[in-house]
Amino acid sequence: MVGEITRREALAGAGAGTVLGVLSSLLPGEAFASTKAELGPFDLLKLPPLPFAEDALEPVIDKETVKIHHGKHFAAYVAGLNKNIQALDKARQTGNYDDIKCISKDISFNASGVVLHWIYFSVLGPSGSQGPTGKLLELINRDFGSFENFWKQFAAASKSVEASGWGVLAWEPFSRKLMILQSEKHQNLTSWGAMPILVCDVWEHAYYLKYQNRRAEYVDNFAKIIAWPKVEERLLAYCQI
Ligand code: MN
Question: Which CATH architecture has domain 134-239?
Answer without folding.
Answer: 3-Layer(bab) Sandwich (3.55)
